[in-house]
Write a structure and sequence with these properties.
357 residues, mainly alpha, Rhopdopsin 7-helix transmembrane proteins, two-stranded antiparallel sheet, globular
């Protein structure tokens, strides 16, 4: 009798362990894992997703290449903010190179192997982290310039290169979990996917490797931006500095668009983590809702990589002036046109961009 009870206990333990294994291996949720749950996230139209990714790729490539060209062409008169925006455009351009691969994977599943899975996932994460860290650095720079009227531009321009190098290094560090744990996963009920695989019973690892990078790579930089821009705006309004307030519109727009594009994905990712680790109850409806939310918000995050150039064109006078001066240098726009639009300091050998952002 004791032997029978011991065997029953062992079988119960085995089934319990297997259930935990299915929930915490990092595998995408499938019908096999959760029985009657249907994969409603497949309702997201794959052809539409591929079309969106292709359009984002083309706009990203064109827009960010133009941003890099304008800033480098006017590097003599470039500001500290310009250097940060140059690095932001470079990050978006690197990410653009991965979009055709993501598009193909949405259509046919991940057929490119584990090494490429790690590389494109790394570029995606580095793009995200470098983006918000660069925006946080811009907010600190504007805070010092407006609140404390810091004027040591030469020293700051020298320092900003090291800050940018540090941002790239920190972004790579925060992205290491993706490099270490992403691989191609094959499930019976779906196409191959590029996903995290943490092994057996890894609820704690999932919490650490998702929430820790999100804290240092999203929440803390966000708080820094809110603090810096809050005090900067208060100073501008108290001093009635209308011109400087207008010059801040581009930066505010860039930050706002970043948050609108990436905050929903991060919230969906946090909810997914809490469900997988058992903090919130797992149900079939919740699985499908979160799965669909991750797909949709990821598209929104990818869309961000091509939006900044539009902000510069429609809001940033400095960028427009710089672009027109490049066209004038190559004879595509007349000097009279520049004069009529009050774009000054044009010569054939140098270009001085207006102080307005």
């Amino acid at each position: 009798m004791a032997n029978i009870e011991e065997n029953v206990w062992n079988i119960t333990d085995l089934l319990k362990w297997y259930d935990e294994f299915l929930n915490f291996t990092g595998m995408p949720f499938t019908e096999q894992d959760f029985g009657p749950c249907s994969t409603e996230t497949e309702a997201l139209n794959k052809n539409a997703v591929v079309t969106i990714y292709s359009l984002v790729f083309l706009l990203n490539l064109l827009g960010n290449s133009l941003v890099i060209l304008v800033i480098l062409y006017n590097r003599v008169s470039s500001s500290v903010t310009d250097i940060y925006l140059l690095n932001l455009a470079m990050a978006d351009l690197l990410f653009a190179l991965t979009l055709p691969i993501w598009a193909a994977s949405k259509k046919n599943g991940w057929t490119f192997g584990t090494p490429l899975c790690k590389v494109v996932s790394l570029l995606k994460e580095v793009n995200f982290y470098s983006g918000i860290l660069l925006l946080a650095s811009i907010s600190v720079d504007r805070y010092l310039a407006i609140v404390y009227a810091t004027r040591t531009l030469i020293q700051k321009r020298h320092l900003v290169k090291f800050i940018c190098m540090g941002i790239w290094g920190l972004s790579l560090f925060l992205s290491l979990p993706v490099v270490l744990f992403r691989r191609v996963l094959y499930t019976p009920q779906s196409s191959p996917v590029c996903y995290e695989d943490f092994g057996n019973n890894t609820a704690k690892w999932r919490m650490v490797l998702r929430i820790l990078p999100q804290t240092f790579g999203f929440i803390i930089p966000l708080l820094v931006m809110l603090f810096c821009y809050g005090f900067a705006l208060r100073t501008l309004f108290e001093a009635h500095m209308g011109q400087k307030h207008r010059a801040m519109r581009v930066i505010f727009a860039v930050v706002l668009i970043f948050l609108l594009c990436w905050l929903p994905y991060n919230l969906a990712l946090l909810t997914d983590t809490l469900m997988r680790t058992g903090v919130i109850k797992n149900t079939c409806k919740r699985q499908n809702d979160i799965g669909l939310a991750l797909d949709v918000t990821e598209i929104l995050g990818f869309l961000h990589s091509c939006l900044n150039p539009f902000i510069y064109v429609f809001i940033g006078q400095k960028f427009r002036n710089g672009f027109l001066k490049i066209l004038a240098t190559h004879g595509l726009v007349s000097k009279d046109f520049l004069a009529r639009h009050h774009i000054i300091s044009y010569t054939s050998s140098s270009i001085s961009v207006s102080a307005k952002v």
